[in-house]
Amino acid sequence: MSAASSPQTARLCRLDLWLNPVFDEIIGATPGVSLSVLPARGDDARTLAGLKSAHAYHVSAAKDELPRQWFVNADLIAQCPDLVCVSSGGAGYDTIDVAACTAAGIAVVNQAGGNAESVAEHTYALLLAVQRRVVESHQRLRHDAGFTREDLMGHEIHGLVLGLVGIGKIGTSVARIARGFGLRVIAHDPLLSADAIRDRGAEPVSLDELLARSDVVSLHCPLDASTRGLFGAKAFAAMKRDAVFLSTARGGIHDEAALYDALRAGHLRGAGLDVWEQEPPERDAPLLGLPNVVATFHTAGVTHEARRNVARSSATQLVAMLRGERPPQLVNPEVWPLAAERIANLA
């Protein structure tokens, strides 16, 4: 935007939820941008007043961390007439109604790729823990006696067929690492061409073929209307007997009750789960009671390195947008001409 049309200070807000300090460092070093850190809880009037006057909003991507009233939905947008750009604090954007933002001329960015290596590594942590019965062995060493090593015999992953549902930045990292383990990688991604999937290190297949061929099925797709409930009883039944199911994607893509039934029936060998419909799940959640389930608390992308990358990416994209520059990770690219016009006319 031109200097003549620029506001004296662009107003950026975030809540006081934990965020790597590099975000505040970048914003604080940017001339013409002021940062307000508002309370997530305890003073709703102050927080709403801050958001009502904000031009930009960095919002947590964690739906179970962020109080519902601070989700970027139509109700909040209606109260924030100056809001022109929103940045999700992660690759996901469950806390943002993208359609409502697009209708209001608000550009939305995520931080896809910022945590890709961490999530990819965690995928293999879950796979190896399931195949080699790591948690079960740990628990038996702590609490049991009189068992043999053969009682805890596991399986190699070398030579298995790994089926990736989604091969974006995270899936591409998973495919790259697979070569070192001697895995054969196939992938289904309706958003990519067959050539693009090959370029990312996998053989393109239909979802039905992926389920039929894979020894390991790993989810790396977003949660949206097309993927919610994608893995239910029918999909689990279509998987190979003794296959392993992994998800570091989003809760809600797989049906937890159907997965429990497939595991209890012995159709699937095991599951590694980082994501849940409710996070954290109840301690008596049925899946947590199965010895062949390895569970984590949506921590695949929660490393020091990933959180720093995501915070830096978010701050950098917000600054770019407030300067009128198109950011690299637009979730709703169709809105950019209108959003750029709104940014140019900020007052």
UniProtKB/TrEMBL annotation:
D-isomer specific 2-hydroxyacid dehydrogenase NAD-binding domain boundaries: 125-300
Class in the EC hierarchy, top level: oxidoreductase
Stretches assigned to coiled coil: none
Transmembrane regions: none
Protein name: Glyoxylate/hydroxypyruvate reductase B
Family: Belongs to the D-isomer specific 2-hydroxyacid dehydrogenase family.
Pfam families (UniProt xref): 2-Hacid_dh (PF00389), 2-Hacid_dh_C (PF02826)
Entry superkingdom: Bacteria
Residue ranges annotated for the D-isomer specific 2-hydroxyacid dehydrogenase catalytic domain, each copy included: 48-332
Keywords: NAD, Oxidoreductase
Organism, scientific name: Achromobacter ruhlandii
Protease keyword on record: no
SUPFAM superfamilies: Formate/glycerate dehydrogenase catalytic domain-like, NAD(P)-binding Rossmann-fold domains
NAD listed as a keyword: yes
PROSITE patterns assigned: D_2_HYDROXYACID_DH_2
GO molecular function: hydroxypyruvate reductase [NAD(P)H] activity
EC number in record: 1.1.1.81
